[in-house]
Each structure stands twice: as structure tokens, then as C-alpha cells.
Amino acid sequence: MFDTTAAFVTTGRSGYELLADPQLNKGTAFSETERDAFDLHGLLPPNVSTLDEQVSRRLQALRSFETDLERYAFLRELQDTNETLFYALLVGNLEELLPIVYTPTVGAGCQQFSRLFRKPRGLFLSIPHKARIDRIFAQPRFDAVEAIVVTDGERILGLGDQGAGGMGIPIGKLALYTGCGGLHPATTLPILLDVGTDNSDCLTDPLYVGWRHERVRGQEYDDFVEAFVSAVIKRWPRVLLQWEDFAKNNATRLLERYRDRLCTFNDDVQGTAAVATGTLLAAVNVTGVPLTEQRVAVLGAGSAGCGIASLIRAAMRDAGLSESEATARFYMVDRDGLLVEGMPGLTSFQLPFVQARKAIEGWKLDHPDRIGLLDVVRNARPTVLIGVSGQAGTFSEPVVRAMAECNGRPIIFPLSNPTSRAEATPVDIEAWTEGRALIGVGSPFPPITRGGARFKVDQTNNSYIFPGVGLGALAVGASRVSDGMFMAAAKALASSSAARDNPKHNLLPPVSALREVAAKVAFAVAIQAHQEGLTADVPIDRIDQRIHAKIWTPRYVPYRRKMD
Ligand SMILES: O=C([O-])CC(=O)C(=O)O
Ligand SMILES: [Mg+2]
Which top EC class applies here (predicted)? Predict the structure, then answer.
């Protein structure tokens, strides 16, 4: 385990070599003694700064930029220059900086990746170099790796195929692993599987940095992913591997293929499901309608939508419904409308959630050949409406008003990211429901006015879940990530809700509290792993201490010169 509490660091690097290493560089904060020991005099201006001074200098520069994309580029550059300072800045200003390092600006960062590219970070594994994966992994720099986030760039947020530019996502997710979950940056590794791209803007862009090839699919794709996972297991047998932003079919398929082979999960399927379930459990407390009586419409029946339905259904079963009673409460709507039994082209993960023909027999429909979302809301009268469609504006005024007509407190979560893809804006939902809706959005939005005061709408984003799941799993050396661990994460999140004591309060803790949320989620996840027999021999009463020992706080420790 990486020592996050070491009193000092020993290094053989000096001079420019030391300054050029983002994991070791302290910039102007190298002390006089260190400048003596590491030949740094003259390479730095003479005044020695503190970390706090460096943070305020960077914050000033950051705030002077015109656009968030410039801020994103500035922060990425800082991350590649001095990681301790980057994380000190991030941890101290989560609310302000998360929307830049992460959603929504990271989406633009992926789209502009080839233009912003400066220094290498993480690993680009491309099909032409498939045979070299072991050798790439072998570099000593990666000895400490414990957490990997991998994407193939095909479904970047709601922005579609971004090819190699998708690398921005693993980098952003891992920034939260450290910034919120406390994992030491040296233990994290972002990976982009470059299997080509079908995005013609990338393919025709002379500056595109990825492999200029149409996206490889089928057996060759599967063989490449298999080579990747096998090499990961060989090099880091106890690693945590997070799959991120894979397209609909691959997401669930790869998860099913690998979830019993290593400690792994898919954030879009399971992380998003846990944050949606946790927020829903908090909302149920407020509306007073028990979970067993909720009816849930989900727009977007892809891997994320079906993942959400699975976890909420499991929570309904925990609350006393039978499997079939719980299943009947879901209305999954995709491109061809409501999923109904016998529909052609259903995928294996959609099949468990189709509505019975009999159940919809008496429905009044505008177009019986395609049962749209408005039809579903008018006829099924759902209490909950969740969007993971990637389609802006699909929670239209008639849809939202229909939700408000049949519910005193409709629960409405437009979860698609980034901000530009949200199914509806909080301001509109607030107006169309006369302020009665319980709202959760995937991306950050400006505060709305509620009861004459500013109200910050809950950001129902998997950032409330994955840093804690990773921290908890790694702290106890979990061999697998189970569905039970995600349920534990969802319940831990719901139990942090301020709305439990006052229904006017937020459903979720604020983004500024994400470090505390991650620690709490980690504890619940680790306890669950222990109960399921998935942990190495960690005594239950040591779990809390294990978690806290793993949380790294960005600060400078003194350096000593390694003698050779
Ligand atoms: O990255 C985010 O903000 C949430 C997420 O996983 C996605 O939208 O794919
Ligand atoms: Mg994602």
C-alpha cells in the first residue's frame, strides 16, 4: 500500500529533472535546505513560497481567465507540472473547480483534446501496439498503481464518440478519486483504449492525436480488450478497474464479462445507478410516498438507464415488493418508445424491464405504434421521472406538467451530461411544477429561486459514489465490486441527506462536502464487502482506520537526497 503519511520522501532526482516531475515538483516551495541538497538554486526565483501562497497565486490567475475551457487548460497544465499544488487547489475549492476539472467543462476538454495536448498523462493503448501492452505497463513509474479508469472514448458523456480525446474523462474521474476519495495521485492511472473513431471531425482533423482509423468492432475489439484486461491482472492483481463512457452495448457486455475476474465496475451503469437510487431514497423520505408505491419512468433505456432500474428495483425488493411487482413499476422509454414485450431489437439488459402488453391494454395513445414519454406519463402516472437519454429538452413542458398533475411532489431527475444535454433545466422544471418538484440534475446548473431565496439544485452525479466505492474497495483489498456494495453506497448517500430532518433542505450534501461523502460511502462499501466475504483478512473493527490511512491530503513533505 502506498504510504500516504510518510514524514519525508527520498529521491535521487535533482535540478531540472526534479522540477520536471509533477509528482515531486514543489516549484517555488522548495526550501533553502532542499535547494542546497538538490541543486535547485538559480533554477527558481529566490523567494520561498508556502503551499497556501502558491494556491492563492494560482487561484488569482485562474479567476482572471475569460472562459472555463481556458481554466480547464490551465488546471491540466498545473496538474502536469505540480500535482500537490493542483490537488491543494482542487480540494480547497471543490465547489468552484469541480465544474472545470470535471463535468461539464471536461466534455469540452475532450472535444478540444488534440488542440490542448501538451504533456503526456496516463496511457494510450492502441490496436497497432496491442503486442506491447505488457511492456508499456512494465515501466517502474507504474509500480504504485492501484486504481485505473479506462475508456474507449465511444460515448463521452452525452457527446458521443470523441476517439482519443476521450482521455479527458479518465483523467477527470481520477482527479476526483484523489480530490474527493483521497487516493494518492501516484496510485492512479488513466487509460485510453484507442480502437479508432467513427467521428469524422476527428478523422479529418489534421491535428487529431489519435489513431486515424475507423472504430474497430467485433472479435478484434474483444481480443484487444481481453489483452488489456489480462495484462492489467498480471501487472496489478489487486487493482481497481473502472470502466467509463463505453457505448451502450459494450458497457454492460464488458462488465458482465469481467466483473468476476477482477475488482471492477462500470461507473455509468453502477455508479450512476447508485447516485440515482440514493437521491431517490432521500426524495422518498420527503414526499412521504413509500418506495414500494413509486412508479418510475426512465428516458434512455441504455446501459445507464437499465442499471438505474436494476438498483431501484433491488431497493424495492428490499422494501418488500416481489420481483414481478417491482419490475412492473418501471417504464423504460428509448428511441422507439416504451419497451414492451415482443418489441424487436431488445438487448439482453433491456429484456428484464419490458412492460407486459396486458398492462398497457387500456392506455389512451396518440400514436399506438410508438408509445412516447408523454403517453407513458399520462397513462402510467409515474411518481419518478429519470433522464439518461443524452437528448436536451426531452422533458418537455407537457411532460413535466403532466408529472405535476398526477403528483403532489413529482420526483424529476434529468441526469444527462454535460449541461447542454440535460433533459430539462431546473428553472423550467421549477416553473412547470409550481415549485413542487424534487429535482436532481447530472451536471451543475446555476441556483434557482425557491420561496424567494436562492436554492442550489442537487447534482445527482456519480461523483457522489465512485470515489467512495474506490476508496472503500481498495482500503480493504476487496477482490470484487458487488451489487450489494453499490446498494450500500446508495443507502449511505441517502443517510447523509439533510432533507431527512427538514424537507426544504437539499436531498444531497453539497459538492463542497464530497470528501466527507466519499469517506462515508467508503465505509459502507467496505463493511458490505466484508460481510460478503470479499475482503482480504481485515478485521471489521479496523476498517475505519484502514480507510482513513488511505486518504492522502495534499501537502509538501521534506525531501532527502537518495545516496547511490
Ligand atoms: O461524468 C459524469 O459527469 C457522469 C458520467 O459518468 C457520465 O455522464 O458519463
Ligand atoms: Mg461516465
Answer: oxidoreductase
Residues of the chain with pLDDT under 70: 1-2, 564
Minimum-distance ligand to the CA of 442? Answer: 1
- Ligand 1 site-directed mutation target among 102, 103, 243, 245, most atoms within 8 Å of CB: 103
Question: Quick check: helix, strand or coil at residue 196?
Answer: coil
Q: For residue 245, which atom of ligand 1 is closest to its CA?
A: 9
Digit-coded pLDDT (tens) for 368-385: 889 999 999 999 999 999
Catalytic residue among 26, 72, 87, 173: 173
Contact indicator for 443, 103 with CB cutoff of 8 Å: yes
CA pair distance 259, 120, nearest whole angstrom: 30
Active site residue 173: yes
- 309 in a domain, yes or no? yes
Domain boundary among the residues 426, 461, 496 is at 461
Closest ligand 1 atom to 155 CA: 9
- Catalytic residue chosen out of the listed positions 72, 102, 221, 258: 102
**Rounded Cα–Cα distance for residues 190 and 2 (Å):** 18
Whether residue 552 is contained in a domain is answered as no
Helix, strand and coil percent figures for the chain, each rounded to 5: 50, 10, 40
Range of the domain at 395: 270-461
Nearest atom in ligand 1 to the alpha carbon of residue 462 is 4
What residues contact residue 205 under an 8 Å CB cut-off, 6+ apart? 114
Any ligand 1 atom below 6 A from CB of 441: no
The ipTM (two decimal places) reads: 0.99
Task: Give per-residue pLDDT as tens, 50-76.
Answer: 999 999 999 999 999 999 999 999 999
Question: Ligand 2 centre from 312 Cα, in Å?
Answer: 19
The strand ranges marked E within 28-98 are none
Does 102 qualify as catalytic in the annotation?
yes
Residue 318: give its domain's CATH number: 3.40.50.720
C-beta of 157 in contact with ligand 1 (< 6 A) = yes
Which residue type, as a one-letter code, is found at position 402? A
Give 126-182 as a DSSP string: EGGGGGGHHHHHTSGGGTT--EEEEE-SSS-TTS---GGGGGHHHHHHHHHHHHTT-
**Integer Cα distance of 331 and 412 in angstroms:** 14
